[in-house]
């Protein structure tokens, strides 16, 4: 194993598998049941090591992944990857199932009997994908870059005397497309990681299973690189961000064929914009390094819990005094994936990046759990959606996230 004074030698492998359910019954946690499959959904996995430490990252085309503690322990038992070196996230497409248990105090869609059975299928798929990714590991380099895509927009709007979900052109919105490229020594990409802040809700309401715009973006990246690379989507500060164009109907309303067709054209167009920008950024990354030392860690903080207000009927919340905030870190040299177990709003991401000592800090929402929205402290002056759906009492989550991630970064230093 390398010592702290010796250069790390990065190895990376990636894998992708189809997780489209064969039976859609009981699997849609939001709105009307799934009637058919529009496009397949996938699991994408990355395994990396530097000779001393090994990490795993899994991205799922699902609306949410609940408490992933049990499966991370199972991965450790069966594959030997430490559970605190594993991050599992969901793209947050609203036209796909959820998996996992709901943590005490979390505001999440309650899992059906069918979704819990589907969860076990996905856990098996995770293990298989990680085995494949590990078997495919080879010497690699890492590079990072940032672009811009104007696909997202702030969705918290004051109209008719109340706060609603809408379109706020002037509201805070992080439009950065952050890209991490892992190449083999031949210069060909093994994996492309994309981090962007938007709710994949373009086709919510069509009654069809879909990976939405995140799936389109990943498909474009993978096709561009001749399907030799795996594209992993990680959700950024999505808590207050909507796509610019969606189905455009009231929640629960069924579209006609023309409306659905327009929504899918919007899904393809917006996903292509993000995917094409990710490709442009990836192609422009000229400096890559084989010497990125890997570090990882996790931290769980019990925060005072508050009940949700005016949330969807399908949301469930156990009456508890505290709710677990799960923080995670996957670090490759000066590149950090900072995971938070909820849908984080824009301002918290901005504060974290400003405070981080590293050149590249990517906030990943819905990492290893989804407890609800995570609103910044100032937002509590307005009864907006991200506050009504936040399970944490004001004054606790924002500092816990920033201070907790900084502590994990400090602990990861040689």
TrEMBL record:
Origin: domain of life: Bacteria
InterPro entries xrefs: NEUT/ALK_ceramidase_N
Record Pfam families: Ceramidase_alk
Neutral/alkaline non-lysosomal ceramidase N-terminal domain location: 12-228
The protein, known as: Neutral/alkaline non-lysosomal ceramidase N-terminal domain-containing protein
Source species of the chain: Actinospica acidithermotolerans
């Amino acid at each position: 194993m390398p010592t702290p004074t010796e250069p790390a030698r990065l190895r990376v492998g990636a894998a992708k598998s189809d997780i489209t359910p064969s039976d859609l019954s009981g699997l849609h946690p939001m709105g009307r049941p799934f009637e058919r499959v529009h496009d397949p959904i996938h699991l994408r996995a990355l395994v990396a090591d530097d000779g001393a430490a090994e990490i795993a990252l899994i991205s799922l085309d699902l609306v949410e992944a609940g408490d992933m503690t049990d499966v991370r322990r199972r991965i450790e038992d069966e594959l030997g990857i430490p559970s605190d070196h594993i991050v599992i996230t969901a793209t947050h497409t609203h036209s796909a199932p959820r998996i996992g248990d709901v943590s005490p105090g979390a505001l999440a869609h309650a899992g059906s009997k069918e979704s819990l059975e589907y969860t076990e299928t996905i856990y098996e798929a995770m293990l298989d994908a990680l085995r494949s990714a590990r078997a495919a590991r080879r010497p690699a380099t890492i590079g990072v870059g940032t672009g811009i895509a104007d696909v997202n927009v702030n969705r918290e709007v004051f109209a008719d005397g109340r706060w609603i979900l809408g379109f706020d052109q002037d509201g805070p919105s992080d439009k950065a497309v952050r890209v991490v490229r892992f190449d083999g020594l031949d210069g060909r990409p093994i994996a492309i990681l994309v981090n962007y802040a938007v709710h994949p809700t373009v086709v919510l309401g069509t009654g069809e299973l879909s990976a939405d715009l995140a799936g389109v973006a990943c498909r474009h990246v993978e096709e561009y690189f001749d399907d030799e690379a795996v594209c992993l989507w990680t959700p950024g500060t999505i808590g207050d961000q909507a796509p610019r164009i969606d189905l455009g109907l009231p929640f629960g309303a069924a579209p006609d064929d023309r409306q659905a067709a327009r929504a899918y054209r919007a899904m393809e167009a917006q996903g292509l914009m993000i995917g094409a920008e990710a490709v442009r950024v990836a192609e422009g990354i000229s400096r890559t390094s084989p010497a990125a030392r890997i570090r990882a860690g996790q931290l769980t903080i019990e925060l005072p819990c508050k009940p949700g207000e005016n949330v969807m009927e399908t949301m469930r919340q156990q009456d508890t005094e505290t709710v677990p905030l799960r923080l995670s870190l996957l670090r490759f040299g000066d590149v950090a994936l900072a995971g938070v177990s909820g849908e984080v709003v824009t301002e918290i991401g901005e504060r974290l990046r400003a405070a981080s000592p590293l050149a590249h800090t990517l906030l990943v929402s819905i990492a290893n759990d989804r407890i609800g929205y995570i609103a910044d402290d100032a937002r509590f002056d307005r009864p907006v959606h991200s506050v009504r759906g936040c399970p944490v009492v004001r004054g606790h989550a924002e500092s816990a996230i920033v201070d907790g991630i900084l502590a994990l970064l400090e602990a990861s230093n040689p």
